[in-house]
Amino acid sequence: MNLAGQGRLKAAWTLALLAPLCAELTFTAVAVPATWLALPILVLIYGAGVLLIREAVVRVGGGWPSLITLGLAYELAEDGLGLQALTSPTMYGAGEWGWRVGGLNLTYWEAQVGVHTVFSVLVPIMLVGVIFPQHRARPFLRTGGMIGVGITAILGVAVVRLTISVQEDPGYNSSVGTVIVFTVAVAALAAVALAVLPRVALPAVTPLPATCARVGLVSGIACAAFLFLLMPPGLRKDTGPALSGLLPHPILLALAAFVAVVAAALLLRFAADPGFDDLHRIWLAGGIGVAHTLFMTARLTPTTITAGAITVVLEIGALALLARRVRSRRTSATREHAY
Q1: What number of other Cβ atoms are within 10 A of residue 317's Cβ?
Q2: Is the entire prediction scored with pTM above 0.85?
Q3: What is the mean pLDDT of the chain?
């Protein structure tokens, strides 16, 4: 196997590991440290799906709009078809602390759309691009690998359905109609992401001067605001979102959507700055990641406070090492150019 092939496989495995790390092990594991023991299963559940998304988008020449759209499809597959939490009236108490309409847990859905799209899909893919810049726009897998990952992703949804869903809400089964609707929605979103959006030219964006600190601050504040508007602090089961006693659920959903749209618009303008580079991307991941982890410490138990503090230190440390690698890479490139 040539070195380029080895690099692509390393990038693929890194993405498969980063997906559950960003989505669960820096979040759920803060309250339940034993979640780390489930890493192999989490790689199956998260890693294969996100790797499939990334490979499909790269092969059709898609960009962030395609990734976000497939993130929506991924959330429906995981939470709707696999976990069944989108329709279950009792799982995680989402039907009680959130807005439930027509048998659908709307608050939970919007929260998970944000969490899965950002932490399961966008952030891991962005970080892998920083770690392996030479493969940023290239497929990691060949056709056989794509088929294998696709089968594994489907298996991951089945594992969620047959294990976690059964454990969290024994005896509950979504209606056949619901399963059909979710399946059709996943297929439609995938078609739009892979066949339509790659052909759509994105409008020009007015650049906004980007500093690393500014990017990290905006991303962190936006993440914290989004989570607190939609989810119980620390995911405590005895309460609802922090402002649920003051504002009705539809207003909270609208505010969270507003925060997401404004944050996305600002980050797009930052990214349009000619000086925006991998160091900015690291700060972006850091701001979001630290806020994501600190949200879980709001449960305020000795376990969450300790685990949260350790996790934040590890996150910052890992990203600092990555930033050092980026600077070293930049210095080496400058020296080579000089000679």
Answers
A1: 10
A2: yes
A3: 93
